[in-house]
Design goal:
135 residues; mainly beta; nine-stranded antiparallel β-sheet; two-stranded antiparallel sheet; 6% helix; 38% strand
């Protein structure tokens, strides 16, 4: 995929815990809760990724493999389901420090239906991606 971060994938990681491989159920949860994303910009990337939220505040997240993208890259963080989105790529992350907490579920989640996505995963890369749900 063009303009995606370069990642180094440890061979045969079998962990689906925060910061490791993204499970298909995890991707499905992220896709079903589009209101949970917060926009920000990566200040640093490598072992620990620090994201400055567009609305103020920051969060530090970790992933078990090195993730390289330039500082200033637009990203989104889904704190409820510990995911980082860089472009269309979703990465399962462990929240290390900071954050604003999970975004509360809206009183009318059906209004978000058009933004919900089908979350799928790559068993080779251990990452997820959201695809539009067609009616």
């Amino acid at each position: 995929m063009p303009n995606q971060p370069r990642t180094e994938h440890p061979q045969n990681c079998q962990s689906y815990g925060p910061g490791h491989t993204m499970h298909w159920v995890h991707a499905k949860q992220v896709g079903k809760t589009p209101w949970g994303w917060r926009d920000g910009f990566a200040r640093t990337a490598a072992d620990v990724i620090v994201v400055a939220y567009a609305g103020g505040g920051s969060i530090a997240v970790w992933h078990h493999r090195r993730v390289d993208f330039p500082p200033g890259t637009p990203v989104r963080v889904h704190e409820q389901f510990h995911a980082l989105a860089v472009g269309s790529l979703w990465i399962n992350v462990d929240i290390r420090e900071g954050g604003a907490g999970a975004v509360l579920e809206p009183s009318m989640p059906e209004l978000w239906a058009a933004e919900m996505q089908a979350g799928i995963t790559s068993v080779v890369e251990g990452t997820g991606v959201g695809l539009p749900i067609s009616e």
